[in-house]
Amino acid sequence: MSSKSSASSSGPVTSAYAELAGRGALTADPAQREAAGLLDAVVAALVAEQPKGFLGKLFDKSAPAAKGLYLHGEVGRGKTMLMDLFFAAVPIKQKRRVHFHEFMDEMHAGMAAFRKSDKGKDADPVEAVVKPIVKSGLRLLCLDEFHVHDITNAMLLYRLFDKLFAQGVTLVATSNVVPDQLYKDGLNRQLFLPFIDLLKEHCVVASLEAERDYRRMKFAGQHVYAFGTGPDVRAEMDRLWLRITGGEPGHPDVVESIGRKIHVPLAAMGAARFGFSDLCEKPLGSRDFVRISHQFDSMIIDDVPQMDRTKSDAAKRFILLIDNLYDRGVKLGASFAVPLEQLGKDDKTAFEFQRTISRLDEMQSEEYLDKALRDRPSELAG
């Protein structure tokens, strides 16, 4: 691993990583262990700030934030897993973790709303969206999948993070690209370059050069669908779940979406497990499914029924769900009551279901399972 800082030899992230490796939930990798040490250094710096307290920050605006970390590397190398361990290990309440494009979507929406308000005629909209963040006392912002695609984000980032860093916010981010490659070949990229310098000033930059693509290994050679009902089918899904979580049973979790919380029955090691009813018989929509697809790289759905006219609403949600999982490249395991070609028995959704069946067919193929996740900023900005 290349970085501008030496890794901490021990700490809560390293300990949590060692515990997972010790019980076989993951295969220990030297590069991942070194990255855990770098994350421990951020934890230590945040804890060292604690005596100042929030009031101290209010009265000492010049106090620098703890230096953050920008961790980049190829897909499937364990960046998300390490971010999970880090976020859980940070012993402060004023922390937030969100997908990069979701965060930027929020910033643009807040600025647009401010411009339409009476106060928005002469005041700075960037200052307006930063103010509530600072007022909340946020000290740590964790951004998953930092990747700049469009000019609207590119032109906003320097102004936004210059203010956040000045107010003592620490950034920890994961990305598939090095900082110098962000917004590569973008329109007016020279205007974006000061942000790269700002990022390097406030974050240690480190590459995660793990040996293997662990995400893809989980699904290698696996049958990801089961058909029928009963204990044998459930047991097959249980085996697949333990395979993709490294033997971790999982725990309840939540996905935050547009100001509300979506209950996740089981989550572990970047994977989530839902029942069909949890997703398709609740008032969820496409943006909710986008949020879910950005929080988990793998998913199991139990008990997908045949969908006749009595389940039209559920069928429409299922179509939306599969569209979003497919477009994102999420790995899917599922149990179906009937063969795929018999799933859609409602003439109201028959046409749309043809595409869903085609995508479900593809999602169990080796080619699909071997592909990396895809970024989808346009879905979030819409």
Automatic annotation (TrEMBL):
Alphabetical keyword list: ATP-binding, Nucleotide-binding
UniProt keyword Glycosyltransferase present: no
One Pfam family of this chain: AFG1_ATPase
Record bears the keyword Transport: no
NCBIfam families linked: ZapE
Name of the featured protein: AFG1 family ATPase
Organism: Devosia oryziradicis
